Amino acid sequence: MNWVVYCTVCGSSYVYESGQGLPEMCPLCSEKERKEGKKLPKRDKKKREIVAISTSEFKNRKVVKTLGIVSHEHIFGINLDGADLNRFNREIAVSWAEKVNDGRDLAVSSIEDKTIALGGNAVIGVDITYNVLGTHGGIMMMLVAAQGTAVVVE
């Protein structure tokens, strides 16, 4: 299965073939880091400063500029081969929960990145939706979407 992921260094999207864990950098940035032998700067500072909330108001902050709607849809597959089902037995299906959590985190992180690109420092009215799209060949396809309004707050 292929995933569309975003590089934490340059912000570009690229296709990643499924495997163990999602990489943080695109192949070009990884190669550049390897050749230069040093860590490339990431968008960590701005990323740490951004706030994403589900309400439309901040308690002690004022929205000074609205930049527009930001959204991201993430589709992934969950294998229904039965191995997880046997371990489930009224408990948490750990690998399924991890995939759903990773999908949610990626969707929220993507709208935060889009907000930073627009010049914002917060996302308000964040809404996350989950939908099962269907099954194909023993794999359940699931959509996790996040949307909100990119803003600048003081």
Q: What's the count of strands?
A: 6
Strand share of the residues?
35-45%
CATH architecture of the largest domain: 2-Layer Sandwich
Largest sheet: 4 strands, mixed
The count of helical stretches stands at 4
Distance between the termini: 42 Å
Shape: flat
Widest beta sheet: strand line-up: 3-5-6-4
Briefly, what CATH class of the largest domain? Alpha Beta
The residue-averaged pLDDT reads 78
Helix fraction by DSSP (H/I, runs of at least 4): 25-40%
Helix/sheet category: alpha+beta
Unreliable stretches:
none
- CATH superfamily (homologous) name of the largest domain: Hypothetical protein apc22750. Chain B
Order of helices and strands: EEHHEEHHEE
Radius of gyration, rounded?
A: 18 Å
Annotated CATH topology of the largest domain:
Translation Initiation Factor IF3
Condensed summary:
This protein has 154 residues and is an alpha+beta fold. The protein is built from four helices and six strands; from the N terminus they run E-E-H-H-E-E-H-H-E-E. The protein has two domains: 1-42, no CATH class; 44-153, 2-Layer Sandwich (Translation Initiation Factor IF3), CATH 3.30.110.70.
Write up what this structure looks like:
With 154 residues, the chain is of the alpha+beta class. The protein folds into 2 domains: 1-42, no CATH class; 44-153, Translation Initiation Factor IF3 (2-Layer Sandwich). Helices cover 31% and strands 38% of the residues. A 4-stranded mixed sheet has the order 3-5-6-4, covered by helices on one side. Strands 1-2 form a two-stranded antiparallel ribbon. Strand 1 (2-6) and strand 2 form a beta hairpin. The longest helix is centred in the C-terminal third of the chain and has 25 residues, at 94-118.
